[in-house]
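New to this. Please check this protein:
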Amino acid sequence: MGLTLDLSAVISTTLEGILYGFSVFMFGVTMYILKVNARRLDSGVNLKMVAMSCLLLVCSTAHMIIDIVRTCRGFVSERDTFPGGPVAFFAQPSESTFVAKNAVYTVQTVLGDGILIYRCYVVWQSWLIIAFPLLLLVWIAVAGILCVHSAAVVPHGAGTVFLTDVGRWITAFYSSTLATNLIVTILLGYKIWTTNRRVAKLRQGSLLPVVRVIADAGILYSVILTAALACFVQKSNGQYLVLDMVTPIISITFYMVIIRVGLADSHRSTDPGSSSYAHQHTMGQGIGSRGGAADTRGQAVAMNRLPVKVHVTKVYETDGSTTFDNDTGSDTDRKGTSVLDVSHAV
């Protein structure tokens, strides 16, 4: 006996509620870390991170409310009036709550993927690198809009999402956002890993924990998207369960990166003898030379952007010798330097 639509509605709403509650808790922790970090660094609160966190919370909250209303309508208010009962109610693609929840999911997916692409740009500092992911993001938005529109115009009784034109747009939407997440996560991890190999010979510490933080978030999101796509291709009602779980998970993956970095930074700040984590966020690469003498400088990331605290080091190469000293200069003093900025990436 397969999973019926009315049973899947109950299970999916319950699972979403659990994950939503966890995401709300993580939102509170994220706000606390951003506040503490601003106080520690004697700077203003990172408004960009606050705004992104709040937008994701609004989207997941709206989706949760719509699912509660949908469940109540299907099992209570329209149980005896909707033709076919609760099973037909939850199977109808053009039902208003189904259209609304998918519209919210589309907005949150575009927002989450956009944040990931922005992190990739900050690390690479190249529009060329993110050109293809940006095209994918545009296609995700288009596919999401067409998905919502095609669902809204399905005649009553025409069939489920598996039997209508909605299916092909849902498949395209899932595939595109999965591809975007995998590509951008790999680009982020590769850039930080290659930088770690370059600076490993110059100083102690490793950037690999940063790669793990980013990879964990990417893997979590990729796994849930793969499950959703697999269920949909197999025309399984389990895709409704996964779909409702994706929305809070998008928020969770965003919060977990900030929280893990913030907790590690707090631990390091309370342990003066621990400096390995600070090294994870100090990355620089020198490019070019003038008159045969290279001036390669490693610059710390701009820490007013994210809750990470770093030690800063300059590396000078002159006449074959290499020296290190502390860097407290401004950005205007760092001409001719290519900097890998990890603060936005994590």
